[in-house]
Amino acid sequence: MYINFWYPVARSEEIVDDKPLGVELLGMPFVAFRDTEGAAHVLSNTCVHRGGALSDGWVRNGQAICPYHGWEYGGNGKCTKVPSLGDQKPPARAKVDSYPVQERYGIVFAFLGDLPEEERPPLYDVEEYGTEGWKAQLYVYEVACNYERSVENGLDPVHNEFVHPKQGAPMLSLEQQRKPPPCEEIPWGSKFYMLFPKKKDNNTELTAVKTGPRIGGAGSWFQGPNQLVTWIDISAENAFHQYLFEAPIDDSHTRIYFLNMRSWLLEDEHDERIEKPTLEIVHEDVGILEKLSPVRTPATNTKEILMPSDAMVVRYREWLSDWDASGWRIDTKRLQAEQGDIAFAIPSPGRREGGNWVLDTIPLKPGGEEVRKRRVSPKFSAAG
Ligand code: FES
Ligand SMILES: [Fe+2]
User: Fold this and answer.
1) Are the C-beta atoms of 243 and 129 separated by less than 8 Å?
2) What pLDDT is recorded for position 204?
């Protein structure tokens, strides 16, 4: 799990006027609430007085109030009132981390990290959202698996034939499996896109296309460690564009915000008809993912036998090792071992602007060039 990316926190309607919402992400507790203007805020959940959980308190005049002794915090994380001090100003250290927020697609996202705005990896831009000719459905569900395993599953075109045989998933030709289309680099990720084989013609040589024409093709890509996209373009008019925003609750549980966009059957009456098989497919994937061993992706690729058709998985792991090298990976073992004695916080951008913070920064794995080599690209063995 990494700091410095955008993570989905809640559906917009879950954050209501006068109630704070507690959310666990990256193994850490957060509180989300709305101010008097209705803007959503996400703060570290630990009150810096004596460790109360802000999410168990209440919201009044747009301030989150600790249930233990009533300290009040604004959306910027600063304590505005200490009831036991009367009219006296709260001490300067009385502040908790406040994270940048964006509310899009009916989801409240928080940037959990300390990068300044211009250096932040992007929240995925779903261009079709809210445009004419597209219908959106949002499904949210929790899975007992590691989020990286889940993203890898979405980047893997070969499993469809075995995991989703009922769904009429297009089968890949042997040629495609042996020689998948090359990965194309995008900002903060990689993608592939391939044309569907013509029916009953297993030997069709397929060409990867960079952009359109999006006729009879499909592809998947990732941007950052937890944003996964799959386009299924049945024809020019009939497409499903699926966006999965994954929220690691901890490193073996994931909450997935699945935004399913479609360009046909736009009327509400079709929602159920689309939702049922879509969630059946999700269920089939979850059955596999919750039993994978090890739970997390192995530390080196030599601990699995990767095939040419796993090229996107390999590329994803290379990107992960880039973010390891940046020093953004959370040291979950240390976190779990020390969490009982120390209250940690994910560093927010405010920590770069000034010191005087009460909580310790969450333990991170050291970065550096040698860390990048942690995952070795395998030499693909010929399939068969
Ligand atoms: S612990 Fe929050 S006000 Fe005392
Ligand atoms: Fe699947």
Assistant:
1) no
2) 41
First to last CA, the chain: 35
* pLDDT for 198: 52
Nearest ligand to the CA of 81 is 1
Question: Each residue of 320-351: pLDDT tens digit?
Answer: 999 999 999 999 999 999 999 999 999 999 99
Ligand 1, pocket-test mutation among 44, 45, 46, 47, most atoms within 8 A of CB: 47
* Dihedral of alpha carbons 229, 286, 290, 15, sign: positive
- pTM for the full model? 0.92
Q: Give per-residue pLDDT as tens, 17-53.
A: 789 999 999 999 999 999 999 999 999 999 999 999 9
Residue nearest to atom 3 of ligand 1 (CA): 69
Closest CA to 22 of 34, 9, 39: 9
Query: What six digits make up the tokens of 203?
Result: 């030997």
CA distance 294 to 307: 18
| 123-131 long-range contacts, CB within 8 A, separation 24+ | 123/6, 123/227, 124/223, 124/224, 124/227, 124/229, 124/243, 124/245, 126/241, 126/243, 126/259, 126/261, 128/241, 128/261, 128/263, 129/104, 129/105, 129/259, 129/261
Which of 45, 49, 72, 359 for a ligand 1 pocket mutation test, highest count of atoms within 8 Å of Cβ? 49
Q: Which ligand is nearest to the CA of 84?
A: 1
Angle, helices 271-289/147-154, rounded to nearest 10 degrees: 120
Ion ligand 2: residues, Cβ under 5 Å: 285
Atom of ligand 1 nearest to the CA of 71: 3
Q: Which ligand is nearest to the CA of 31?
A: 1
Per-residue pLDDT tens digits for 175-215: 777 877 788 999 999 999 887 655 444 444 443 333 344 45
* Ligand 1 site-directed mutation target among 44, 45, 55, 69, most atoms within 8 Å of CB: 69
